[in-house]
Specification:
Strand order of the largest sheet: 5-18-13-6-7-8-19-27
Strand content: 15-25%
Number of helices: 15
Number of strands: 27
Oligomer: single chain
Distance between the termini: 100 Å
Radius of gyration: 43 Å
Mean pLDDT: 78
Largest sheet: 8 strands, mixed
Length: 588
């Protein structure tokens, strides 16, 4: 009889659990269920002798106290009786009891409820983790599938680097795709570069400058290599045309706009992000609206923007109307519309970086969906992982050090009726130089101090007369004719007559350098003054030069033109418009 049928598990004889393995000669604990239950007579015999000494089938009493022997304890296994091997004759004290013992099992101890609960909970937790991981991966792949990409055929830098400055071209196209956008003008248009912002992030991530480029700017568009389903082709450039035709027209892709911006500013663009009308509507809705301020009541019939004086939170169609309106503010020009857009984008940045957005899982999910569905990017950042890397770099910049500005322009002098603008070089070139050298439009004091210290070191010592400066000019800038144009400027406008054009340098260099001997230091200081060379450009040798030996000026990639200072200014030129991202401005 087993322990359960007797109802007394404590009466199980431990010896009944051990059997002799004939192959090894060792006693082993029986764990299998192969042995059958003993017959009734064996159970009766076993039961009869249970309370005292155990009686064998022959009636000979046996006790559990005798050490060893046929009926006693086994020396090899203390406290347990020897079982005979299968087929062996019954010895004294064996027989039915042995058969009965073979049928009994020690009941496995039941696990505690606490342990069972822990195991169950662990299993459920593991299942949840696996399920979440699968869901997260599926959602990650879903977001990747939302992103539209364009191969820009080498127009960019090949990818941003975490230890370098970053230049992103943000393009807003007026292509009328998406629900509800067909009524905004020409629905069949291929789209233009309607709103374009060059977003420059400094190498140390302390500041950023977002420079808007007017769509009506007259400029030259370079030849543009594009990728098509039929292969790669080159679209011929154009001269003296509107900037906005750098996209969409004649088959031009965003890479053409990137090349045009580089030609205009001298800054290499790393990547582009392009958005259509839907992006404004969906992104503003995803973050719960953007706060704007208007200085007067607005009722623009064309854009359908209608707001009362004061602050409003707008999203969707109202947000799109706000950034499209040209007749609600200022003198109703594109330049005034740019100012309104910059105020709107500043507010949007503040909202996106606010705790209200960053601590709301639902808003973050909606924002991820909206952004990936609305944006088209180059293949270099065409995945969630790469966009996350880029976003983490951009997020390091404090909004108080993000400045919106507009490329300095002036009315086109060739037009009687003013409809387009041209670059205002005296203001634009210094601004481009500031962006290239990471000079912030907001952190001016520190940069100005640094510039003054460098200039003070440069000014120490005497200066030669311009007529005494002797220099050879080499072109290492990559710009055709740079050495000759510099020579003409030095001789004709600065009086440096002892100068010569030595054509191209052995190789192009990034920064302009002036090499001179110790006894030419006064000439070097004079030339540095004339050209606006930074102290870092001066390379003094060890040995003195001969009386007629010239200095060596090698123009580098920072060369912007004859007479344009190489050293960037410490502050923006007068009249350059600025909007700081952490401050709200009311549109007027």
């Amino acid at each position: 009889m087993d322990a359960h049928s007797r109802g007394r598990a404590d009466d199980i004889d431990p010896a009944d659990q051990w059997v002799l393995n004939p192959q090894t000669g060792n006693y082993e604990l029986r764990l299998d269920q192969s042995a059958g239950q003993p017959d009734a007579s064996a159970r009766s015999s076993r039961s009869t002798g249970r309370r005292g000494a155990t009686t064998s089938r022959t009636g000979t009493p046996r006790t559990s106290s005798a050490p060893g022997g046929a009926g006693g304890r086994t020396a090899g296994v203390p406290g347990q009786r020897r079982r005979r091997s299968p087929g062996a004759p019954d010895g004294p004290g064996r027989g039915g009891a042995s058969a009965a013992a073979a049928g009994r099992r020690k009941r496995k101890p039941q696990k505690s409820r606490k342990k069972k609960a822990l195991m169950w909970t662990s299993g459920v937790t593991a299942g949840v983790v696996v399920a979440l991981a699968i869901t997260a991966f599926a959602y990650y792949e879903h977001l990747n599938g939302n992103i539209s990409t364009v191969d820009i055929a080498g127009a960019g830098s090949g990818g941003f680097k975490k230890d370098q400055a970053i230049n992103i071209l943000v393009i807003g196209t007026d292509k009328r795709t998406g629900d509800g956008n067909g009524g905004y003008g020409d629905k069949d248009s291929a789209g233009h570069a309607d709103t374009t912002i060059l977003f420059h992030v400094s190498k140390d991530r302390t500041n950023a400058t977002a420079m808007s480029i007017p769509r009506d700017l007259k400029t030259d568009i370079p030849d543009c290599e594009t990728k098509t389903p039929d292969g790669t082709k080159v679209i011929p450039g154009e001269q003296d045309v509107r900037f906005n035709t750098s996209l969409g027209q004649a088959g031009r892709d965003p890479g053409c706009t990137m090349r045009t911006v580089k030609q205009l500013t001298g800054l290499t663009v790393d990547h582009f992000m392009m958005a259509d009308f839907n992006a404004v509507k969906t992104l503003t809705t995803a973050i719960g609206g953007v706060e704007v301020c208007v200085a007067k009541d607005v009722d623009d019939k064309q854009s359908k923007l209608k707001l009362t004086k004061g602050k409003h939170v707008i999203q969707g169609e109202d947000a799109l109307a706000f950034v499209r309106t040209r007749h609600a503010f200022g003198n109703e020009s594109d330049l005034d519309r740019i100012k309104t857009q910059q105020q709107f984008l500043s507010s949007m940045i503040r909202k996106m970086k606010s705790s209200e957005t960053l601590t709301s899982p639902s808003k973050l999910v909606d924002l991820a969906e909206a952004a990936t569905e609305a944006l088209t990017v180059d293949t270099g950042i065409g995945s969630i992982g790469k966009l996350q890397d880029l976003g983490s770099e951009l997020a390091k910049v404090n909004p108080k050090n993000i400045t919106f500005t507009t490329m300095p322009v002036k009315d086109n002098p060739a037009e009687a009726v003013k409809a387009t603008v041209v670059v205002d070089d005296p203001k634009a070139r210094p601004l481009f130089a500031m962006m290239r050298d990471d000079v912030s439009l907001t952190e001016v004091k520190k940069k100005e101090k640094d510039a003054k210290n460098a200039q003070a070191a440069l000014l120490k010592g005497a200066r030669a007369e311009a007529s005494e400066v002797r220099v050879d000019v080499y072109n290492g800038s990559g710009t055709t004719g740079a050495a000759q144009s510099t020579l003409n400027w030095l001789q004709n406008e600065q009086g440096v007559l002892k100068s010569a054009n030595r054509s191209n340098a052995p190789e192009n260099i990034a920064r302009t350098t002036l090499e001179f001997a110790p006894n030419q230091a006064d000439q070097a200081r004079k030339l540095a003054d004339l050209m606006g060379l930074p102290a870092a450009a001066l390379k003094q040798g060890a040995a003195d030069a001969g009386e007629l030996e010239p200095m060596k000026l090698t123009l580098g990639g920072d060369f912007e033109g004859a007479g344009v200072p190489i050293t960037p200014p410490a502050k923006a030129p007068e009249g350059v418009q600025k909007v700081v991202a952490d401050k709200q401005v009311c549109a007027e």
